[in-house]
Amino acid sequence: MLKGISPLLNADVLYVLKAMGHGDMLVIVDTNFPADSIARETQFGTLLRIDNVTAAEAAKAILSLMPLDSFIDDAAARMEVVGAPLEVPAVQKEVQTVIDEAEGKHWPLVPVERFAFYERAKNAYCVIQTGERRFYGCFTLTKGVIPPEMV
Asked: Where is the signal peptide (predicted)?
């Protein structure tokens, strides 16, 4: 246990959060996502897990340490619902709330078609699978920067 760090963030997840640089993307996925096969194609190459939590709980823990990239429009993205691209399921609304709270403003989740999402995930730094059992609990988050302290 460490002070000020969510106990949901295990050593492997903390390592990748620290190792990632500005512009690197991570993927948070549900239990149905082909996480292991896609994770093998990422830069990290190994699936990470935050078990027994929802996608929103995992996103909250991650975003407690990682800022989003303010230089791009798609720093936060969600997998579109197949056949209903405008639908936003409850799991995605929950993650939207977490993102807005972490960033202190509304930060839109950009929709990404299912197969395009898989390709996007393959180009990520890493994949983190959660215990989320609801469909479409799949998101990408791109790491931003923390500005130097003003003196």
From this structure: none
